[in-house]
Amino acid sequence: MDDLADQFINYIRIEKGLSDKTVEAYSRDLAGFLQFLNEQGLTPLTTSRDDIMKYIAMLGTGLSPVSVTRNISSIKVFFRFLVHEGKIKSSPARLLESPRRSRKLPSVLSPDEVERLLSRPVLSTPTGLRDRAMLELLYATGLRVSEMLNLKTSNIDLEAGYVRTFGKGSKERVVPMGDPAMVSIKQYLSEGRRFLIKAVNPVYVFLNTRGSRMSRQGFWKIIKKYGIEAGIGRKITPHIMRHSFASHLLEAGADLRSVQVMLGHADISTTQIYTHVTRERLREIHERYHPRP
C-alpha cells in the first residue's frame, strides 16, 4: 500500500500539477484511509463501496462536514488514479456523495427594527438625506450593497419607480421600489446630493463628503452607527437590509420565484434559505404569544 500511495502522490504532484498544500492534504487524508483499510485486513485493490462508506461514517463522528467532504474528494481522486493506472477496472468511490454543508441562517431585522433604523438619519443635512435614501433603497429593492453603490443616475427611473442594476456576472435586472424609497431618493437628489458634489459632476448616485462614490467600508460605518442609535442590540452588517427585504416579502406571502428574480439569484435554492428564516421567526412568535407553546 505504501508503494501505491507514493505513486499516487507523485502522480498528483507531477502529472496533475497540484499545489504543495493540496498534495499535503491529499497525503494526510490518504494515510488515514489506508490505515483504516489495513486495520480491516483490506487493500485498495479489494475495497468495496461499503468499506468506503464505513470509513466515511467513522469520519463523520469526529470531523466537520468540510473535513469529511475533503476526505471524500481525496478518496475519489485516489481510486480514479488506480483506474487510470489499470490497477482496478472501476472505482468503488465513483458514486460517493459529499455531505450537505449546513448553511448559516442570515440575520434579519424585524419590521420594527427596520423602521427604527430608517428613522435615524437627520434629514436637515445632505449626508442625512443621502443615508436615508440609501437605507430606504436597500430595504425597498434588496440590492446588494455593491450594486447600490455602483448605481448611476441613469440607472434610476423615478417616474416608473424602477432601479436597473447589474449583479453577479454582469447580469442586468430591473427591480421595482416603493413610494417611501422614491420619495427619499428624490429628496436626496434635489436637496442633498448637490452639496456633496465637488469639482466634477460624478455619475454615481451616492457620494461621500469628498464628492467620490461611497465605498463599502463607508456604508458599513454608516449603518453600524445608525444601528447603535436605533438601539438594535446585535451586529448590523450592510447585507442585513437585503436579508430583511427577502424575509419580510416571504413572510407577507410573496412567492419564492418572484423574490428570486428581485434578488438576482441564479439558483432558487439560494433564495430558499429565507424560507427557513421565516419558519424560525414564526416559531419564535408562536412560542412568545401562544398560551401553550
Could you characterize what this model shows?
Helices cover 57% and strands 4% of the residues. With 293 residues, it is mainly alpha-helical. The protein has two domains: 83 residues, DNA polymerase, domain 1, CATH 1.10.150; 179 residues, hpI Integrase, Chain A (Orthogonal Bundle), CATH 1.10.443. A hairpin with a 5-residue loop joins strand 2 and strand 3. Helix 6 packs antiparallel against helix 8. The longest helix has 20 residues. It is elongated and about 80 Å long.
How would you describe this structure in keywords?
single chain; 293 residues; mainly alpha; DNA polymerase, domain 1; hpI Integrase, Chain A; three-stranded antiparallel beta sheet; 3 strands
Structural classification: mainly alpha
Query: Whole-Å distance between the termini?
Result: 58 Å
- As a percent range, the share of strand residues is under 5%
Q: What Rg is obtained from the alpha carbons, in whole angstroms?
A: 27 Å
Order of helices and strands, N to C? HHHHHHHEEEHHHHHH
The CATH class of the largest domain, by name, is Mainly Alpha
Strand tally, please?
Answer: 3
Oligomer: single chain
Percentage of residues in helical conformation: 55-70%
Catalogue the unreliable spans.
Answer: none
Largest sheet: number of strands, sense, barrel closure: 3 strands, antiparallel
Task: Write the topology of this structure.
Layout: H1 2-15, H2 20-39, H3 49-59, H4 65-84, H5 111-118, H6 126-141, H7 145-149, E1 156-157, E2 162-166, E3 172-176, H8 179-196, H9 216-229, H10 240-251, H11 256-263, H12 268-271, H13 273-289
Antiparallel strand pairs: 1-2, 2-3
